[in-house]
């Protein structure tokens, strides 16, 4: 099962400990074949909307920076329980905040 894990930005700037712990976590997930892709996201973004034949393109930002999704990981796991354990480990590393998870079909 594949899942897209997304995390909101934080008010706390990352420190060396966070970088070290996250690098080890990413290396472990990559070696296990769980992590398919990861990255940070530009908080500005572009909105593309359609109504009938009309396509509208609008440059962001659309939300406050702390409300925007700041990063993502695409993972492939064997079970929902494995996914939730990865999510718990991630939140323990990065600290307070919110993550969102969607299954990819």
UniProtKB/TrEMBL annotation:
<dbReference type="InterPro" id="IPR011008">
    <property type="entry name" value="Dimeric_a/b-barrel"/>
</dbReference>
<protein>
    <recommendedName>
        <fullName>YCII-related domain-containing protein</fullName>
    </recommendedName>
</protein>
<dbReference type="InterPro" id="IPR005545">
    <property type="entry name" value="YCII"/>
</dbReference>
<dbReference type="Pfam" id="PF03795">
    <property type="entry name" value="YCII"/>
</dbReference>
<comment type="similarity">
    <text>Belongs to the YciI family.</text>
</comment>
<feature type="domain" description="YCII-related">
    <location>
        <begin position="1"/>
        <end position="89"/>
    </location>
</feature>
